[in-house]
Amino acid sequence: MKSSDRYPGRETDDKSNNQDQENQSETTHNKIPLLSDPWKPCRQPRAIVKGWLLKVRCCLGTVCGMEWYGYAALGILTALLSFLMDLTVAKLLRAHQWLYMKLEGSLLLQFFCWTLYPACLCAFGSSFSHNICPFSTGSGVPEVRTMLTGIEMPHYLSLTHLFTKFLGLICTLAAGSTVFLGKVGPFVHISTMVGGYIHNLCALIQPGEEKAAKEMLVVASAVGVASCFGAPIAGVLFGVEVMSSHFTLKNYCPSFFSSACGALTFCLLSFWSGDGETLQVLFRTNFPTVLPFYPLEILLFAFLGLLCGAVSCCYLFCHRWILRFTKTNPVLIKMLTTEKALYSGMVVFFLASLTFPHSAGQYMASKYTMKQLLTSLLDSSQWSSKSHNASVQLEPLLEWSSSGTPVCFSLAFFLLMKMWMLVLACTLPLPAGYFMPVFIYGAAIGRLLGEAVVYVSSMGVGLGQQWASNLNPGGYALAGAAAYSGAVTHTLSPALLAIELTGQFSHAVPILVSTLLANALARRGHRPSFYDALAISKKLPHLPSLKKACPRLPFTPVGQVLGVKLEQLQRAAGPLEVQRVVNSSSETQIPVVDSHESQILLGFVLRSELLMFLRHCQTESLDQCLNDVCCIHPTSVLLSPYNTVQEAHSILSVVGAQTLFVADKGRLVGLITLPEMKRILEDLAKDI
Amino acid sequence: MKSSDRYPGRETDDKSNNQDQENQSETTHNKIPLLSDPWKPCRQPRAIVKGWLLKVRCCLGTVCGMEWYGYAALGILTALLSFLMDLTVAKLLRAHQWLYMKLEGSLLLQFFCWTLYPACLCAFGSSFSHNICPFSTGSGVPEVRTMLTGIEMPHYLSLTHLFTKFLGLICTLAAGSTVFLGKVGPFVHISTMVGGYIHNLCALIQPGEEKAAKEMLVVASAVGVASCFGAPIAGVLFGVEVMSSHFTLKNYCPSFFSSACGALTFCLLSFWSGDGETLQVLFRTNFPTVLPFYPLEILLFAFLGLLCGAVSCCYLFCHRWILRFTKTNPVLIKMLTTEKALYSGMVVFFLASLTFPHSAGQYMASKYTMKQLLTSLLDSSQWSSKSHNASVQLEPLLEWSSSGTPVCFSLAFFLLMKMWMLVLACTLPLPAGYFMPVFIYGAAIGRLLGEAVVYVSSMGVGLGQQWASNLNPGGYALAGAAAYSGAVTHTLSPALLAIELTGQFSHAVPILVSTLLANALARRGHRPSFYDALAISKKLPHLPSLKKACPRLPFTPVGQVLGVKLEQLQRAAGPLEVQRVVNSSSETQIPVVDSHESQILLGFVLRSELLMFLRHCQTESLDQCLNDVCCIHPTSVLLSPYNTVQEAHSILSVVGAQTLFVADKGRLVGLITLPEMKRILEDLAKDI
Predict the structure, then answer these.
(1) Is B242 in the same domain as B302?
(2) For the ranges A384-393, A666-675, B237-246, which has the lowest average pLDDT?
(3) Which of A33, A378, A423, B14 has minimal Cβ neighbours within 10 Å of its Cβ?
């Protein structure tokens, strides 16, 4: 509080960095519609409603700050959206399955039903999102990460964007396991958009206590994961990890609170809509509780982690290659700029014809939806030993070896095909998440290893026959899912997410071991993660991603990248000089130097004070100088031109200063604000 | 890397902030004993061993950086210590129980056995720790939190301290549930001491790549919790929470890795020493998996959270009162400074005579150890309904209603008595943790509520009779434990700890809800947490705690608290002035101003360069000035005297700058380093 008394510029910067100071009094006025809008009709009823609303606000305010209601609303709203989306997608998927079953008998009609339904959905989704909001394609996580470093990207927080992303994502998800894309990434983005909207609402209700939108965005990123899966703690860990260098602990409790609200709402909605007797995890498993795993199996889990790490490196390489390819191949560039719907339709048709259950799809369990795929892979019974015994057919096994092929072949074929199909699907211009497919892919890797271990053990090799009957391939699938998705995204929260999704705490240690080792392998040599690659490809001003592309880049001295010559005032400036500066500069803080010759930085004056000074001079027609009338505020933190971009960035985003002056030996050199930092980073990204 | 090229002072500051620059070359030389010690005997074998060691180092270095081996060693060592301690304490407790049983028949002998055994242990522990290392009493968490803000407290990281704390803690724990103190806090401290030692070792092996000790300490604080309970993720969350304002994400992966190593080692050791077939959680529970709780019970869990929050406020008030009382009461002051052993013995004798199973102890299940108490409280069967039916006696119930009193009476009596007994036990000058007792106390609150709900429901009131049989009071106990311990420490990680301790993921949502609400109530009005109160009472230089005691304190401008007049050089300084400054100042970075009149800060020179300059002048007998010979390094970040202590503190601890110059309008005013910050905070703490 006190600091803002001394640095009035800091507070005003929050809300009006991009608008002129002179408009500010009107803006503030407009922001309180509850209090004054005299020209509107029905004054009497409006006044009564206003009075009641103010009373409600007072009552709510006594319990806790208005922002906490915002956090609760954020959690509940996001969970509601998530539940609605799940419901719609389930209905659309069931409609597809119903149609496909009805057409039983005619192979051609079944083929067209199988391929055209997702192709049309994706073409529609692609065209829709392209026309309404072209930014809405892709995951959204790279953009969210960029916004969380403090850089403003207003396009990515608009309500139109929210609407487009929501509908587009439904189309993508309804295309099912054919397209093999997920929900998490866009949902994190949707959650931040809801967060941004609620932040504006809070600012409207309680105009005095404006807080930086960034806090709400950090909370929202945690809520996105939490309400997508009903996994509050993994959500918070994701929120911690998604921050680039420092996690502000002020956001920790709000994140937990909002995530808990979101997860609770999501679980309650699922419970009320379903037939269970209690709140359940999303993917119920039936792991044995008495002997979940032998301690020596830890070594196998460690090997699984390394395997997942290695496969993830291969996948990330292919992904980076296709990102480059879509940027350089002229045919693809043309297709992806003008004929998005056609491209989406064609690619999805191609993918769907491959997964058609009467063609290669029979070896890939393609009849399963994404959720069924994961549930089947996490099944705790041993398929490879059961498939010998034809009389005992297990439900999940039914689909994986429907063509009579061995399960291991099906799994290997699934892994081989889905690798490049997923890479291809990543080029689709649709709102789509890339986490869930990777999670399922990892589960398949784990399952394959698990089944192989069971097979080898039942032969009497290695762990021995007496162990074989107690081995649980589902545990390997779970560990594999966490390890592979963690390796692809370079995060550790998937380990906790895997636990929260299944409620299987017994496997916590093996999951953690595999995830850590997979991450260690994937992060070697400072390779970019999946999201880093997307950010680099989109040239987003996200410093940690740019660092992956060019390690020396964050160490560029700020002196080298400072922008155009800075407008400044000397202490003895008269009205003419002040008028010139006010006209030519749009910054809210104008630096004041001792004299134009010495350039010794004294501090800054606020734009509003300069305007007052000008008005004062006009009315009183006096020829006073700046020093006599205006208060020169001391600068907060001063950088030298030899400070690196990284240091400037972390001071801006961590210390919360809005404007940093750069001075060399006391002489003013330049000024860095968040918009200026955005420009600097965008310039640096261009050169990569 | 590049930044350190430009600011050589920054790197040297890490290792030699307290020692003179001139000794540095010798110091570095001494730090590489592997390479050169020509005067020692057995040169030939030593050379061979050296060669092998260097080869091993090279091999290890190719896999990953040396610090990762350090993190692994930290986890494994801490887990080993934790396991050893558990083993010793279990043996000592069994010896006590055996003796007590052998004396069956003679009430007086039994009384003396019951009271004198813990009293003697505590008196010994108190006297031992007082004589060897007087700082080793108490929890250690407040000191660790202070060290994690970057402030050096070398006394708290010595090996003697580690040894004293370890032995003292064994004495405290062996006194059992009579003294009712725990292990976590001191173990976090022990872990940081091990971390500090391993950090020194790493620096010795790889002298080129020294890293700040702070990183290892952050990791160690997570490992402490993880290897105390085998709970890796809760450990990491504790590590995040224990940081005052910003968690550096660079420490996130190491924390996870080291915690996983610690937890895995701890689980494996427990497995090998026990008779289980697999790795188990510390407190096995038998909660029903089909219907863990009804969704409507969430409301009861929320009420439990609020109840725990309210009780925690009361407890914290009593705790703060007794802390003040021990500081102001002259008798206690005298006792606690000179007669620590006597005081400990007397208090423990008093506590033990109260818990004697033939006196009030029979209503408090005092025969149970801490571990048995928690296990009994987490039992999922309903005591209140079972105790009506005398023929079915449950094992945990046996002790809680051994005197034939109703269970609810026993629980209420336990809560009432343990409240003040725990407050009294907190004054004991012993190495002791205060988390576990609080955790058990919370479990008792939850159990009491759970049993009450079962009783009321079985009467047909509220939730109804058909629900009553499915209610699980153990779930309430678990949620209560997390909520109460979270409220007392103002943290949320106990929620995850409760899950990891019991493996009961089914209760994740209720636990989270209660913990959040309890925290919300406990944190209202910026009351200090348990650890804050300890830090304030000990006058530690920990800014967030001081803020709780005096909210305006962190907003003190640095200009007001800057120390003595700063030594500075002018650009044209000759050898005489340089000699004077080198003699009078001990800083490694000496500021250089334009001239003593203008005081415009140009940058700084390193002490080592000044010494070189002097040598240069002496040998060549030239009268050169500073500007001609030395390189004036630009200052990194410059503060103004109007910046607050909080801002300076966060820049120091977050941005990683080691020396901050303070300048007003280009003129040098002062300099802030971490030791200087420590002095400032200690001065500020004095005034509270």
Answers:
(1) no
(2) A384-393
(3) A33
* Distance separating alpha carbons of residues A511 and A518, to the nearest angstrom: 11
Amino acid letter, B174: A
**Alpha carbon distance A623, B383 (integer Å):** 88
pLDDT above 90: percentage of residues in chain B: 42
In whole angstroms, give the CA distance from residue B52 to residue A268: 63
B539 and B645 share one domain: no
- Please tell me the distance in Å from B434's CA to the nearest CA on chain A: 23
Complex-level ipTM: 0.88
Which site among B214, B249, B489, B555 would you substitute to test the A interface, given the most A Cβ atoms closer than 10 Å to its Cβ? B249
For residue A84, is pLDDT > 90? yes
Identify the three-state secondary structure at position A404. coil
> How far does the CA of residue B36 sit from the closest CA of chain A (Å)?
33
Q: For residue B224, what are the CA distances in angstroms to A378, A523, B187, B218, B263?
A: 33, 26, 6, 10, 10
Q: Indicate the number of domains in chain A.
A: 2
Shared-domain flag, residues B243 and B344: no
Nearest residue of B to residue A519 by CA position? B253
Q: Which of A358-372, A509-523, A576-590, B487-501 has the lowest mean pLDDT?
A: A576-590
Candidate from B247, B512, B603 with C-beta closest to A665: B603
CB contact under 8 A, B2 and A638: no
CB pairs under 8 A between A and B: 230
pLDDT of amino acid B386:
60
pLDDT, tens digit (0-9, with 9 covering 90-100), for B18-64:
334 434 444 444 444 444 555 667 888 888 988 898 888 888 888 88
Do B477 and B378 fall within a single domain? Answer: yes
Question: For A406-449, what is each residue's pLDDT tens digit?
Answer: 888 889 999 999 999 999 999 999 999 999 999 999 999 999 99
Could you give the CA distance from residue A227 to residue A265 in angstroms, rounded to a whole number? 8
Going B229 to B235 to B237 to B241, the CA torsion angle's sign is positive
Structure tokens of A453? 């271990």
User: What one-letter code names the amino acid at A350?
Assistant: F
Q: The CATH number of the domain where A121 resides is what?
A: 1.10.3080.10
Q: Tell me if B2 and A500 make a contact (CB, 8 A cut-off).
A: no
Q: How far is CA B36 from the centre of its chain?
A: 39
How far, in whole angstroms, is CA A30 from its chain's centroid? 32
Q: Does residue A168 carry a pLDDT above 50? A: yes
What's A631's domain CATH number? 3.10.580.10
Confidence grade of residue A20 (pLDDT, cut at 50, 70, 90): very low
Domain boundary among A273, A297, A323: A273
Q: Residue B647's closest chain A neighbor by CA?
A: A655
Query: For residue A77, what are the domain limits?
Result: 67-273
Task: Name the residue among B478, B488, B407, B477 with its Cα closest to residue B449.
Answer: B477
Segment A377-384 mean pLDDT: 84
Question: Do B319 and B399 fall into the same domain?
Answer: yes
A289 vs A293: CA distance, rounded Å: 9
The span from the CA of A232 to the CA of B605, in Å, is 51
Q: Would you say residue B485 lies in a domain?
A: yes
Q: A543: number of CA atoms within 13 Å, CB side?
A: 26
The tokens for B337 are 């400074």
Can you tell me which residue has the tokens 């250690």?
B140
Distance from CA of A268 to the nearest CA of B (A): 7
* Structural domain contains residue B27: no
Any domain includes B21? no
Domain for residue A482, yes or no? no
d(CA A519, CA B577): 56
Contact A492 B256 (CB under 8 A): yes
Three-class DSSP category at A420: helix
Dihedral angle computed from the Cα positions of residues A97, A98, A102 and A106, in that order, rounded to the nearest 10 degrees: -20
Of B517, B549, B581, which residue sits at a domain end?
A: B549
